[in-house]
Every structure is written in C-alpha cells, then in structure tokens.
Specification:
mainly beta, about 140 residues, 3-stranded antiparallel beta sheet, 1 helix, OB fold (Dihydrolipoamide Acetyltransferase, E2P), about 5% helix, 5-stranded antiparallel beta sheet
Length: about 140
C-alpha cells in the first residue's frame, strides 16, 4: 500500500525490470538483442530494427541534464506542497533518456549539459525512484 499521495509507477507492468532495478540501486533499460539499441520505457518492438527480441541491462547511472522545466501549475494533488518544482530530462551516458528530478542543488543552478549521477529514493517500502544529483567530477557531454 502506498504511503505517499504522489502518483507512483506500476511495478508489475512492462517496465517491471526497470523498477526492480531501482530497488537494487541500479538503472536498467531494455536492450534489443538483435541490433543492441537501448530504450526506455519498454516497448514490444525495437524502434530501430522492429525486432521483438530484448533483454534488460544495467547502465552506469551517469549522464547529463538534457533539458528541464519548472512546473507552477498543479496537475496532481500530491505535488501541491512542492510547487513550483522542476523536472529534468537526463540523457544517460549510454544514450537513453529518463525524466526525473535533481537533488542536492537549487533549481536556479540547473544547467543544460550539467553532469549528473543516479541516486535512489525509497519513497515507499515497495517503490524506489531514480533521481539524479550533480556530479562535477564526471565529464559533461556524455
């Protein structure tokens, strides 16, 4: 049972391996076993070669801020106390993109190209979300 008013991911759907990886402090994405293309969210067919052969792999968890936006309008009641809040689009070093949040930084300091590393936030006993923190030691432009 959820202990948060915020929307949470479905843990038993197509992306279950991703969320299981987050519980284990890993960033997992789907990989086409025919052409090697990486993707998230999960899809039945590879968008590159249309194969339905795939597995899940663990990535480095490192990447960079590709884009970000600040939400001032309430879309989900559970985020009311967080307004305004920032959502970032992270390009992982290996190529796929994840939407997330940054921690450990004031939103006014977020910059495109900023290097980041995954951190894991246990929001309920069942759900761990992947967030990111600045990582100045990592080279930007992954």
């Amino acid at each position: 049972m959820s202990t948060t008013a915020k929307p949470l991911p479905a843990l038993d759907g197509d992306n279950a391996p991703h969320w299981a990886g987050a519980r284990e402090r890993q960033v997992r994405v789907q990989r086409c076993t025919d052409c090697g293309a990486l993707r998230f969210p999960a899809a039945r067919h590879c968008p590159t070669c249309l194969s339905d052969a795939n597995d899940w792999i663990t990535l480095s968890g490192e990447g960079e801020v590709w884009s970000h936006c600040r939400f001032h309008r309430l879309y989900f009641k559970g985020f009311e106390d967080d307004l305004p809040y920032t959502v970032v689009l992270i390009k992982l070093r290996e190529g796929p993109f994840l939407y997330s949040n940054l921690v450990g930084i004031d939103d006014t300091q977020i910059k495109i190209g900023m290097p980041v590393s995954a951190v894991f936030d246990d929001v309920t006993p069942e759900v761990t979300l992947i967030r990111f923190r600045p990582n100045p030691a990592q080279n930007s432009r992954t």
